[in-house]
Design goal:
The protein contains 24 helices and three strands. It is an all-alpha fold.
């Protein structure tokens, strides 16, 4: 016990480690001692592991604490359950991310056990795993196998709020990407997450394309449950434009397309075209598979509420089979709301009575029964922040809706705060930008594009040596030399 405790407390040392080289050397030596302790302990750690957890600090002795905790939790829980789980939660919320870079496999195994529901209740599991992922990678830009495990747990158990801080992050890197370099020292805190998070460091298992698609689908559905239509729209769009080897359309891509059409109506108020970078074969498949959805979308931007309601009722079995009944109800509910919002293109102020006569409900196919119903609807829209406006009453009792500008003018202090916030965000993106730029610079397709672009510029210069930079810009796709994988 004393020898094990001395080993656990040996890192970090009392004297400061002034640079990455010294830190890396010290932690590598500590890892050798920990490995020996775990591989051949004089007494099984399960007998005195609890004492070690009491005498070490999860924030200060993170590497040692994880080693002991792993021996008590994987593959099965050993020791007093409540005691160990309290220590587990404390660790996952407070570990030192720099130390943990050297024990990615141990941490991933614990996170997998937590996501499988074998250790913590779902609400607590989603909270602590979300926190752990963002401690490892504060940018949230690196996708790992744990992301999908967490998304499944959160969605299937309806514990969505804690995971939003993870799924809202923009994924830039994926395991196994080409041209990914390996770090000289894991402790370098300026590293891009893609450099220290990969299968070799144990933070993730290899992932398949289907894992990425499933994660985006779950993310989109969770955003739908929160009625965050813009983010749901972006998540589904990533799926339907996903590049495939044969340029085809998988089942999950077709499913996402149908939801994307409906969410487009909710977020944009109208049907929008498929992005141009969608694979041509997939785009053709969407037109066929999503025909009933396109019919609804084409009617949403008209004033024919009765026909829209009839079209939705006619294909009710399709919505049920596709598990899109809830989204279709949202579309019917949003129809009149978008009619009201579109009135601001013509009016700056309009009476409630006029709004009632000029808009219809797609749920009934007719105008609402009374001005009070319209006023209540508008009031709810203002409260939910879906409409920028105020309700005002004249002396004669007539109620008007005054539309407000969508953007507000910031004070000088508020503007300065926004600038400072943006500067911090840009600073945090530096490692990501640097890594992306390095990967792009070694990409064969990008090099071909540069050669083609330089040759094109040289040809134009020979024709007219007086031409300036702006004259060299034409309508050709800037990435025309890149072969699409879609």
């Amino acid at each position: 016990m004393d020898q094990a405790l001395a080993t656990c407390l040996a890192f970090p040392p009392e004297e400061p480690l002034n640079d990455d080289v010294a830190y890396d050397q010290a932690i590598q030596a500590h890892l050798l001692k920990l490995t020996k302790l775990l591989k051949d302990p004089p007494v099984p750690l399960s007998q005195y592991g609890g004492q070690l957890l009491e005498l070490t600090d999860p924030e200060y002795n993170s590497l040692s604490y994880l080693a002991v905790l792993h021996s008590l939790c994987v593959p099965n829980l050993a020791g007093p359950r409540e005691f160990v789980l309290v220590k587990l939660v404390k660790f996952l919320l407070g570990f030192d991310p720099r130390q943990i870079r050297y024990a990615g496999s141990h941490l991933s195994e614990i996170l997998t056990a937590v996501c499988n529901g074998s250790l913590l209740p779902p609400a607590a599991a989603v909270e602590v795993v979300s926190a752990a992922i963002l401690k490892i990678d504060p940018t949230g830009s690196m996708f790992t196998s744990t992301h999908l495990q967490l998304a499944k747990l959160a969605y299937n158990t309806n514990n969505i709020d804690p995971v939003l801080k993870v799924v809202e992050k923009n994924i830039v890197f994926y395991p196994g990407m080409a041209n990914s370099k390996r770090p000289a020292m894991l402790c370098d805190m300026t590293l891009s997450p893609s450099v220290y998070i990969h299968k070799d460091t144990g933070f993730t298992n290899p992932v398949k394309a289907t894992s990425v698609l499933e994660y985006d689908l779950l993310s989109g559905m969770m955003f739908c449950s929160k009625r965050d239509w813009e983010k749901a729209h972006a998540a589904f769009e990533r799926i339907l434009t996903f590049p495939t080897r044969d340029g085809g359309c998988s089942k999950i891509m077709a499913e996402a397309y149908k939801k994307w059409v409906l969410v487009s109506l909710l977020s944009k108020g109208k049907a929008i075209p498929i992005p141009q970078y969608t694979g041509p074969a997939a785009a053709k498949a969407y037109q066929i598979l999503g025909k009933p959805y396109k019919e609804v979308a084409s009617l949403f931007d008209t004033t024919n509420a009765e026909e829209l309601r009839s079209e939705v009722e006619k294909s009710s079995q399709i919505w049920q089979d596709d598990q899109n009944v809830g989204l279709m109800k949202e579309v019917l509910s949003a129809y009149q709301e978008w009619q009201i919002k579109n009135l601001q293109k013509v009016f700056s102020k309009i009476s409630i009575a006029e709004i009632r006569q000029q808009t219809k409900s797609a749920q009934t196919g007719t105008i609402l029964n009374s001005d009070d119903d319209i006023e209540a609807l508008i009031h709810n829209m203002i409260i939910s922040n879906s409409l920028k406006g105020v309700l005002e009453k004249n002396d004669d009792g007539t109620v008007f809706l005054t539309f407000l500008p969508s953007s507000t003018v910031l004070s000088e202090a508020e503007y300065a705060q926004e600038l400072a916030k943006t500067a911090v965000q840009l600073k945090a993106l530096e490692p990501i930008f640097k890594t992306t730029n390095e990967r792009l610079g070694t990409s064969r397709e990008y090099i071909k594009h540069l050669i083609k672009d330089q040759k094109r510029a040289a040809d134009k210069s020979e024709l007219d040596p007086t031409m300036g930079f702006e004259s060299h810009v034409d309508d050709e796709d800037l990435m025309g030399g890149v072969t699409s994988t879609a």
